[in-house]
Task: inverse folding
């Protein structure tokens, strides 16, 4: 227990050694060596341990196995004899995961001495933290405590049958059947991959759209394509209860019994136990501190918040940007206001789901032209056996500037980057059509979509093409 006396004084204390915390540290170290980094949880970042990287290894294995389905048409014999060893696949994923985690640790906390404290921290005063039996006074504090998967409290009795992204990759093998509750990014990625590995998957979501797709045309096609691979139940909340040695999952009048449930209902900021309410921090309706997203400063306090902890854009590159802004401002006088990058989200399903720029739901119908391209007949996509998908572009009618895009498309992760760069540079549709497009390539689909939206800009109408529709 602490004796109440301050035993250490530093310029900056960073709570959390994940992506945002390490990004903040990189900025602080440019100015001072007088800091402390605190983290009482597992190290190595959420991305490397349980998120981006192991999930992509898992998806890669599933996708490679899925390719066997087109071998016959390519003249490749023996596809029916291929088998997937679930245990070996999961071991491979963990091996890669360990490599990624080791690389993170080797470049960060492994190189710190007493600047790192492996313990949870809590606020005693706005400038005083308590951790590992000592009190630390810090001129500035950065909160970067990350987040944890949401699991309903009434699932506690059968918690041993509930998977989350935090424990999914620890499975030595895979269950025969799974209900994926929540069809956002994580639910869609893991749900499709599980199905491709031979697991019977039922995906459930109370919403009518999946993957945070707000464009109804893209959403409709996404649902159509995904439900060819696994069962989708949309529009009604899931009810789960234990039934013997299995779980009974219900959605409206639909029922299924499964071995495990994969909870993908979002992530909750890890703010419990910090004592923010004790020091007078104002919390919003979600229990998140009120802060300035341009500076990352919590209103009225020498405290900054970044990454998943602020419950805003829970994506790695956004967490890194926020961490750098928070760490930079912890050392800045006066505080700097930062401009955010163009929003970019990618779901690594097959085809990829991606969006960038202004969301469809935030567009003004009267001032927006919408163009699209469907990949069914694109030569390069046909050759690859990936000729499914749609790309939708949104442009400003007044100046022709590209404002946003949404897609489920082959190579969508790459198309989305090109479009995000173009939007951030305020490029017009006409300017983009002056760029080179090689034949045959997936990018020809982008060229066709740009030509379509150019036609809508010229006619002043969306008739003959996609109409703007509301959720």
Result:
């Amino acid at each position: 227990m602490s004796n109440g006396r301050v035993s250490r004084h530093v310029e900056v204390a960073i709570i959390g050694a994940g992506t945002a915390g390490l990004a903040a540290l990189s900025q602080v170290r440019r100015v001072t060596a007088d800091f402390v980094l605190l983290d009482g949880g597992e190290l190595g970042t959420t991305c490397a341990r349980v998120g981006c990287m192991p999930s992509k290894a898992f998806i890669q294995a599933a996708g490679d196995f899925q390719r066997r389905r087109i071998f016959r048409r390519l003249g490749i014999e023996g596809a029916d004899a291929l088998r997937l060893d679930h245990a070996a696949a999961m071991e491979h994923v963990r091996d890669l995961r360990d490599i990624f985690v080791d690389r993170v640790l080797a470049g960060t906390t492994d190189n710190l001495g007493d600047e790192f404290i492996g313990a949870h921290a809590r606020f005693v005063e706005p400038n005083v933290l308590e951790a590992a039996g000592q009190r630390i006074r810090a001129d500035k504090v950065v909160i970067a405590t990350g987040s944890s998967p949401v699991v309903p409290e009434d699932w506690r009795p059968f918690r041993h049958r509930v998977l989350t992204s935090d424990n999914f990759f620890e499975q030595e093998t895979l269950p025969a059947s799974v209900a994926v509750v929540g069809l956002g990014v994580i639910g869609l990625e893991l749900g499709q991959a599980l199905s491709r590995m031979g697991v019977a998957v039922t995906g459930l979501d109370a919403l009518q759209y999946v993957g945070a797709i707000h464009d109804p045309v893209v959403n409709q096609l996404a649902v159509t394509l995904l439900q060819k691979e696994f069962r989708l139940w949309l529009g009604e909340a899931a009810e789960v209860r234990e039934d013997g040695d299995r779980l009974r999952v219900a959605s409206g009048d639909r029922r299924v019994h499964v071995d495990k449930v994969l909870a993908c209902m979002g992530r909750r900021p890890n703010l419990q136990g910090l004592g923010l309410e004790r020091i007078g921090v104002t919390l919003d309706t979600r229990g998140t501190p009120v802060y300035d997203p341009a500076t990352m400063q919590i209103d009225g306090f020498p405290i900054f918040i970044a990454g998943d902890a602020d419950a805003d854009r829970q994506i790695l590159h956004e967490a890194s940007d926020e961490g750098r802004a928070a760490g930079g401002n912890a050392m800045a006088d006066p505080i700097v206001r930062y401009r955010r990058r163009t929003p970019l989200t990618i779901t690594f399903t097959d085809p990829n789901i991606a969006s960038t720029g202004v969301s469809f739901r935030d567009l003004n119908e009267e001032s927006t032209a919408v163009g699209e391209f469907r990949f069914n007949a694109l030569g390069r996509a046909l050759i690859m056996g990936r000729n499914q998908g749609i790309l939708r572009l949104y442009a400003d009618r007044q100046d022709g500037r590209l404002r946003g895009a949404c897609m489920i498309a082959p190579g969508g992760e790459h198309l989305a980057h090109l479009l995000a760069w173009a939007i951030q540079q305020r490029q017009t549709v006409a300017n983009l059509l002056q760029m080179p497009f090689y034949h045959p390539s997936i990018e020809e689909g982008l060229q066709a979509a740009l030509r379509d939206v150019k036609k809508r800009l010229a006619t002043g109408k969306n008739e003959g093409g996609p109409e703007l529709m509301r959720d």
